[in-house]
Amino acid sequence: MGKLEGKTCLVTGGAGSLGAAAARLFIDHGASVVLVDRDESGLDRVLSGLPQDRAAGAVADVTDPAAVAGFVAFTLGHIGGIDVLFSNAGNFGTVGPIADYPDEVFDSVMAVHVKGAYLAAKHVSPHMREGASIVITSSVAGMRGDAGVYAYITAKHAQVGLMRCLAKELAPRGIRVNTIHPGPIDNGFQLAVEKGLGDALGVDGTAFFNELIPLGRHGSAEEIARSVLYLACDDSSFVTGTTLMVDGGMSV
Question: Cys-Cys with 84: which of 8, 9, 91, 191 at CB 3.0–4.6 Å?
Answer without folding.
Answer: 9
